[in-house]
Design a protein that fits this description.
CATH topology of the largest domain: Nucleotidyltransferase, domain 5
CATH architecture of the largest domain: 2-Layer Sandwich
Shape: globular
Largest sheet: 6 strands, mixed
Strand order of the largest sheet: 5-4-1-2-3-6
Number of domains: 2
Number of helices: 9
Length: 340
Amino acid sequence: MPQSSTIILGIESSCDDTAAAIIKDGKILANIIANQDIHKAYGGVVPELASRAHQQNIVPVVEAAIKKAGITKEEIRAVAFTNGPGLLGSLIVGSSFSKAFAMGLKIPIIEVNHMHGHVLAHFITEADETANHPKFPFLCLTVSGGHTQIVKITDYFDMEVIGETIDDAAGEAFDKVSKMLQLPYPGGPILDKNAQQGNAVFDFPHPKVEGLNYSFSGLKTSILYFLKKELEKNPLFIEENMNDICASVQKTIVDILLINLKKAIHQTGIKEIAIAGGVSANSELRKRFLELEKEGCKTYIPKFEYCTDNAAMIAITGYYKFLKQDFADQELVPNARMKI
């Protein structure tokens, strides 16, 4: 460990949230997020609008993070930023700012994979709390709007994807079904809230996929045809059965996610398990995941603020990379389809 304090600025701009965080010696001092409400009018993220909003938000967000952390910019030792995967225009804003900020202070930059950040969100520690991190090796079910993966982690930087979606992500399935139900954007949290008041009385098929991989494209189609058929019989079907539909959809998606996670636990023998990504904020997934403790597993779930896109996960990943002196070059360009 370095003798002096290691302060890292983290920047996250992979989609529609502009975020900045400050980590000092592995402890989070500030985590600021600016959301983009403009996308609600379009029912989803519009990439061009997202990149423009990042340009407006990034300086105020970084200023707010530095102020909340109670530091000066001259104390920052390195800038860690999301370089992919994500929306290219959004990534360009974050990477360009990070390079310029670091160049002005003559400090290094650190490239961070967004999905790597979600996994290492489990190692974020508040200033006044005792660390409770997964022990290596552990399995992490990483579920978001763009990704669904089971990752085997043997070290901070030794990760292997052992299962992933072959088409759509679980978070995308939640979003698309929410649109079918005409729920306002973002629909996932609203579907979750409705589901908590309903019962899973409708059955939807589970896709058959080899190994530990996932598929959600067929599920979305089956739900679409189900709703179309029921609406032909009763135009008020969705309105009259909203909570039960949401509960049924949510249960099906969580069933599919956990079936393969249980397979992975059995195949690897690893009982240290974690979930990460935006969908890990889903109440049904969190509840069912914690029930795996009854099967001898040790479970880990990030705090809500570290589940969705945030800069704290980028800063903590940057911190561990800093300790390895793993720095990036100013010539680095964003990669919208970066793999772990």
